[in-house]
Amino acid sequence: MKKYCIALLLLLCAGFSLYAQSSANVSIFFPSITGYGRSLDENRLMNVMVTNQLTSRKYLLLDSPQGANFTLHGSLGVFDEYDLYENRYINRIQPTTTYTFNAPMREDYDELYIFQLMLRNVKTGEVILQNVIYATFDEVYTFFPVLMHNLVIQLSGSDSVPISVSNEGNNDQWKNKWIYFRASFDYPITFYLLQPDGLINDISLYNSKTNQLDPQDHKIMAMPGATVGAEFQLLNFLSLELNLQLNMGDTRDNYFVNTAMGLELNVPVKFDNIMLVPYGAFLYTLNVSPVFSEFPRFAAGGGIQLCTRAGKRGAFFVDAKYMLSFTDAVMYNPYGKGSDYLPEVIHYKRSQLGIGLGYKIGIIDKKKNTATMTITY
To answer: What CATH fold (topology level) applies to the domain 175-365?
Structure first.
């Protein structure tokens, strides 16, 4: 229903803009449309539709190009390659202006078809080529009023504004996929805030044999890491990501590899060529360094991702997040178990600031049925 409303609106616009335009003394050589789309009936139907539209506006249709003010050629065929379809007429004449009306997305259909109309002004040599890429003939009906509007403007020599219609999804494919795969290089900064539990003066270990104090301090670590994962876009404004996170080092061993599973709930805010993605995150640590007697395996937090378009399917992104552990990270004191320094363990509050740079690529387009109308000057 929506596409028929669009067609009716465009037809009314075409009618009002062309009202009172003179078609007297304008002759057109219009041979039969060549080729066929889904069936032979489409060829016959398009010939009838174009002929009726031109004759109803009192244009004179000729059987030969001699004496014609314009020539109009049409064809139907299978749409094979997007980069090659305009070459159908390239050997005849180079188009001055091309309008392309994309109704479907190629990934949604096994086979697409193309209807082309090429209008040439014999006097000026100007050529207008219009293409409709379609999956069902109903989509040709949708764009037909626009095709005729653009044709009549050229035939009348009017300065009216041509209309071009394009699929809204063409430039939005990269941010409207069902599934994304992501990989990023990360540089997490981990903070261990010293807690006073059992410490002398809230900061020191104590050796009862030597009466020595060993003050402790907060610890900050910054080591490289990486994240790989899959994101599922459940709704246009909501997606769920599962990922595996790795980063190097603990407070005493730079070669220890920390691994964790992450879950993120994303709320993408989409613009033309960028996307802001605030999200909530949950983390479960898979392995624990032996320097800890107790480790908070669960953490939660949030972050934001800035994505910028990289082709039709992918995006580069910068990611920043902050995660806070639910319980204390309890670390053995640096002298080890059984030492004379007490307490044997030191308590820390653990949090992490994560910064990442990565790339994501999407598969399986989410279907979009809306079309936008743009004006070309």
So the answer is: Porin (2.40.160)
